[in-house]
């Protein structure tokens, strides 16, 4: 692998102003959505928007289903007794 000298990164006033403007717009958009959803009917992260009436899944259940993990033990099909 070739070595090269470190690159200098300079922060300019224009970059700071652009960042502050974008941050301000983002906060305004977030506050608008929060005020629109303040009636208490907003969906929680554990609730899908299409399963009305079904029980909510826990955070752990959502993660397990997303990664394909099934924590239930599988039954053994050998039928042999366990010797101690």
Which terms would index this structure?
about 80 residues; mainly alpha; 2 helices; about 0% strand
Structural overview:
With 84 residues, this protein is an all-alpha fold. Helices cover 39% and strands 0% of the residues. The protein is built from two helices and no strands. It has helices at 13-36, 59-67. The protein is flat, with a radius of gyration of 26 Å. The N and C termini lie far apart (57 Å). The model has no long low-confidence stretch (mean pLDDT 77).
Which helices and strands, and how do they pair?
Elements: H1 13-36, H2 59-67
What's the short story on this structure?
The chain has about 80 residues and is mainly alpha-helical.
From the alpha-carbon coordinates, what is the Rg to the nearest angstrom? Answer: 26 Å
Q: Provide a count of the helices.
A: 2
Distance between the termini: 57 Å
User: Which descriptor suits the 3D outline?
Assistant: flat
Order of helices and strands: HH
Assess the beta-strand content as a share of residues. under 5%
Largest sheet: none
**Mean pLDDT score:** 77
**Low-pLDDT residue spans:** none
Helix content: 25-40%
How many extended strands?
0
Question: Which class do the helix and strand fractions yield?
Answer: mainly alpha
């Amino acid at each position: 692998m070739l070595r090269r000298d470190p690159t200098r990164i300079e922060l300019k006033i224009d970059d700071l102003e652009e960042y502050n403007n974008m941050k301000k717009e983002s906060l305004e958009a977030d506050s608008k959505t929060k005020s629109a959803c303040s009636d208490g009917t907003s969906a929680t992260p554990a609730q899908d928007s299409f399963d009305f009436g079904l029980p909510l899944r826990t955070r752990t259940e959502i993660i397990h289903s997303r990664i394909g993990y099934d924590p239930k033990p599988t039954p053994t099909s050998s039928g042999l007794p366990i010797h101690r």
